[in-house]
From TrEMBL:
Pfam families: Ig_3 (PF13927). SUPFAM superfamilies: Immunoglobulin. It comes from the Eukaryota. This is Ig-like domain-containing protein. Keywords: Signal. The keyword Signal applies. Residues 29-114, 231-323 form the Ig-like domain. Residues 1-19 form the signal peptide.
Length: 361
């Protein structure tokens, strides 16, 4: 009976403390973070990283961690750090810290962690034999490579000598392919190699397979204009300060007489695109690329590339659609906690507050 009375007394004292005495103490839940997890950057595969999350509260807060909204740690007062040791590819994701005590809980904004890596090119030891007639063009495709992010630096060599960026007969496409234009028999029996570098993965560099190109004489002194690599459809979310590039790689003989022009449909009217605040057309590239600067929804629409030889009356054309979504979508993505999107077409961008995780695997 005494034990029962003692239990009642203890319960009364605890309840009394909670209801009256403890109210006079400065107890409070976690309301803001003094340090939040830092993400939104690439981590080289095999590297180490620490995410830190700190707040103040009374009672002392416990910390727990979530990956892609799933709990991955138990709560503890010392768990304010999450450590990555020898990062692996499946560590990629968005991480949140939750701080809590008996009075409430606080959830941090997501921190994106993207593990950067690059594998060997597929068929890296293979020799591809290709042939064309003089005056024609040929595309040496960028071999498939698993890389996150997509290699920032792509270069090509011919017989182990870097190709000149000033030679208009050699163009590297947005996707990294090498386009050989207006080839002659002196270009025959050459070996081409591609090298890709992932600057976010400790400068990892990979050498691709060999392309052996043979050029036979066609006897043609003039070749009409043709579009070898045309612009591709692009869907993006408005990203302040960013730009989009469309390309139109064309062949003809002679190349010096090739004329390339860009147009866009504005309110149903075909309007020529000229160098301006919004558009960049490098003269050195003879309008091969069209860069849309600081793109916004008003830039959406149909873009047309036209190519012809000087003196021709009818051009060859290729077109692509640009679709730019407004910044309002960024707020929706943030509310939903969506931190990555899959590639819709040739290029895609996410709001400046978020890191794009390209799904190239």
């Amino acid at each position: 009976m005494r034990r029962s009375r003692s239990a009642v007394v203890i319960y009364f004292l605890v309840t009394f403390c909670k209801e009256f005495i403890c109210q006079e103490q400065n107890v409070f839940p976690p309301t803001s973070f003094s340090e939040v997890p830092n993400g939104d950057m690439y981590q080289a595969e095999g590297s180490n990283k620490v995410l830190t999350c700190k707040t103040s509260s009374l009672p002392t807060p416990e910390y727990g961690w979530l990956k892609n909204d799933q709990y991955i740690t138990n709560f503890s007062t010392t768990g304010y750090q999450f450590r990555f040791t020898n990062t692996k590819r499946n560590d990629t994701g968005y991480y949140r810290c939750e701080a809590r005590n008996t009075l409430g809980a606080l959830l941090s904004a997501p921190a994106v962690v993207t593990v950067a890596y690059m594998d060997d090119f597929e068929n890296s030891s293979h020799i591809f034999n290709m042939s064309i007639s003089s005056g024609q063009a040929i595309v040496l495709p960028m071999p498939p490579v698993k890389s996150v992010p997509f290699p920032k630096s792509i270069s090509w060599t011919r017989n182990q000598i870097p190709l000149s960026v000033y030679d208009p007969r050699y163009q590297i496409s947005i996707d990294g392919a090498l386009v050989l234009l207006d080839q002659t028999t002196t270009d025959s029996n050459k070996i081409y190699h591609v090298t890709a570098t992932n600057t976010h993965s400790a400068g990892l560099e990979m050498l691709g397979p060999q392309y052996h190109v043979t050029v036979t004489e066609s006897g043609l002194t003039a070749v009409p204009a043709s579009i070898v690599v045309g612009p591709k459809n692009v869907t993006v979310v408005q990203d302040v300060g960013d730009s989009i590039k469309l390309e139109c790689i064309c062949n003809a003989r002679p190349l010096s007489s090739l004329i390339v022009r860009w147009f866009r449909m504005v309110n149903g009217v075909k309007t020529e695109v000229v160098d301006s605040i919004d558009f960049l057309l490098p003269v050195s590239e003879k309008n091969r690329t069209l860069t849309i600067k600081n793109y916004k929804p008003s830039h959406s629409g149909l873009y047309i590339c036209e190519a012809m030889l000087l003196g021709d009356s009818k051009p060859v054309t290729a077109n692509a659609t640009l679709e730019v979504h407004g910044e309002y979508l960024c707020g929706v993505l943030r509310k939903l906690g969506i931190m990555h999107v899959r590639k819709v077409s040739s290029q895609i961008s996410l709001c400046s507050l978020h890191r794009l995780i390209r799904d190239d695997t």
